[in-house]
Amino acid sequence: MKLTDLPDSHGHFGPYGGIFVAETLMAALEELRVEYDKARNDPAFMAEFEYELKHYVGRPSPVYHAKRLSEQYGGAQIYLKREDLNHTGAHKINNTIGQAMLARRMGKKRVIAETGAGQHGVASATVAARYGMECVVYMGAEDVARQSPNVFRMKLLGATVVPVSSGSKTLKDALNEAMRDWVTNVESTFYILGTAAGPHPYPMLVRDFQCVIGRECLTQKIGVEAGGSGVESGRHAATLTAGTPGVLHGFRSYLMQDENGQIIETHSISAGLDYPGVGPEHSWLKDAGRAEYVAINDDEAMAAFHDLCRFEGIIPALESSHAVAHAKKLAPTMKKDQIILVNLSGRGDKDIDTVAKLSGISL
Ligand SMILES: Cc1ncc(COP(=O)(O)O)c(C=O)c1O
Questions:
Q1: Cβ(277) to ligand 1 under 6 A?
Q2: 145 CB burial (10 A radius; 0-12, 13-18, 19+)
Q3: Domains along the chain with CATH numbers
Q4: Is the distance from the beta carbon of residue 90 to the nearest atom of ligand 1 less than 6 Å?
Q5: What is the pLDDT along the chain (363 residues), one digit of tens a residue?
Q6: Where is 342: in which H helix or E strand?
Q7: Active site annotation includes 336
Q8: Active-site residue 345, yes or no?
Q9: Cα dist. 327→98, 131, 234, 272, 337 in Å?
């Protein structure tokens, strides 16, 4: 089977993915699957999507040679795929435009979203404003505090931000609440899911709306996970490195869970990576040996964050800093004429409070 054939018609990537939801959502997911199938075969829809990516997002995003950083790290040349230069400051906008266009096609006037770092929330609030829709964003109370600039941006854009105080007060809990809202308001509401996870067809459609990044730069892939305080400490979110397969939020994938299938709380300095699961396609790629996954801990990500600020004049998102930190390890093992391309998924404006606090500075 070719990778491009996946997922199968029921949303499976090998043993991962699928649909594990309440009966109430089955019809809505089927409606979405059918509508997306029509949309992706509709030249007018695809042309409008491409137009929006070009004129609203500002694509294609540049590939930038980070010369000073490459010299500093020694070895391979480091290039950055500048998703941080997209409108709203991260890769999230690509997917939200696609899903908002589907919502409009399906006649839904209300959209909901979950968010961790706030970048998906901001992107959802942005497209809701652009297409004239009501927007409600669920966000863990801890993330509301640590990503406060993004909370205000969402409010400026007209969205309602609902802090979620259950569980670990982070992304997993925001997803729980968003799914609860969707079950209750499924007739009027479109759920804009922010990552390539959740029940079928979400992992497929988020992947398809984001594949513009990969198409602009075909490369071999290494996934970098959040190692938190170190994988051996147990305080981390390195799901593919240390997790086991199970079911959460409507799909099967690698998860952080105990022997009874109870979810273990995760930790990462980056709110956007602080989640006990991972998209099902990544689980499949890991098992198939088609992609490599590594973990970078908080301290390593922080050091890379500062490197990029000082050597390149670019303030990266803490999520993206994990990828830069892995390049820092890899570059010295490679030759000077070899290339590492880092997907700089977003900018770090949202993270300055976290970085200041960790550096003992009060703003
Ligand atoms: C800047 C940034 N990079 C990466 C991620 C993770 O994105 P994905 O779930 O699409 O892998 C997030 C999520 O919030 C983010 O804000």
A1: no
A2: middle
A3: 14-57+91-212 (3.40.50.1100), 63-88+215-359 (3.40.50.1100)
A4: yes
A5: 566 689 999 999 999 999 999 999 999 999 999 999 999 999 999 999 999 999 999 999 999 999 999 999 999 999 999 999 999 999 999 999 999 999 999 999 999 999 999 999 999 999 999 999 999 999 999 999 989 999 999 999 999 999 999 999 999 999 999 999 999 999 999 999 999 999 999 999 999 999 999 999 877 789 999 999 999 999 999 999 999 999 999 999 999 999 999 999 999 999 999 999 999 999 999 999 999 999 999 999 999 999 999 999 999 999 999 999 999 999 999 999 999 999 999 999 999 999 999 988 888
A6: strand 339-344
A7: no
A8: yes
A9: 31, 39, 24, 20, 15
CA dihedral of residues 30, 32, 38, 39 (deg, nearest 10): -170
Query: What's the pTM?
Result: 0.96
Pocket flag, ligand 1, residue 121 (CB < 6 Å) = no
Q: Is 148 part of the annotated catalytic residue set?
A: no
